[in-house]
Amino acid sequence: MSTRIQPQSIRTVGELFANAAIKDVETPIYPPKQSLLSRVHLYQGDITEIEVDAIVNAAKSTLQGGSGVDGAIHMAAGPALAKACRELYPGRHPCPTGDAKITPGFQLPSKHVIHTVGPRWSVSSDTETMASQLASCYRKSLQLAVDNNCKSIAFPLISTGIYGYPIGEAAHVALKETRIFLEGNNQLDHVVFVIFTGRDGDQKIYEKFIPYYFPLGPEDITESVELLSSVKGPVDE
């Protein structure tokens, strides 16, 4: 049996702060919200081993598998995944950039695979359009997860492989869209950002940017003090 990683065993943003893996920033983009720190995780490893309700595949427009994460997911899921994808888009009708579709996970530990087609980076293309398409990948994937009663989802860093999207810019989009979505939806208990094994530079970028979108902040410090007081009684002056 293949390795299965439970999302509860992956460090949350709150735990990253507690372990000093990430540090709070003076000017976060979003205000602190303590409840979000336990719902967002960061993991370096194999996305095909994570036992979540849905993993997201950075797919080609044909949804027929390719290299990198896409190829790894198809290999781990088995040939039934490609067949299910063909049934979604019979003939030569590709999945539009920024769209997302869902299939079963088949032989994967995850129940579902959400296939989303990210933009190909090009210096000659409109950067705003590409950013909008990438943002759509995250929004539609998160919404599909909720629509299919998922409680947990794992994302690769979409479009940053052979599609060449700058990793720092892609991480900003991923974190922003996740923060906005979680603010308005309580169904997802776990959102895991997965970094491909060996890409330590990607992990450092996430660790740098996470506090801007999911800051620790005064609210969390206050709540921690209140929780400690309720457990141990009044604090001595």
UniProtKB/TrEMBL annotation:
Gene3D superfamilies per record: Leucine Aminopeptidase, subunit E, domain 1
Domain Macro: 27-214
Source taxon at top rank: Eukaryota
PROSITE patterns: MACRO
InterPro entries: Macro_dom, Macro_dom-like
PANTHER family linked to this entry: GANGLIOSIDE INDUCED DIFFERENTIATION ASSOCIATED PROTEIN 2-RELATED (PTHR11106), MACRO DOMAIN-CONTAINING PROTEIN (PTHR11106:SF27)
Stated name of the protein: Macro domain-containing protein
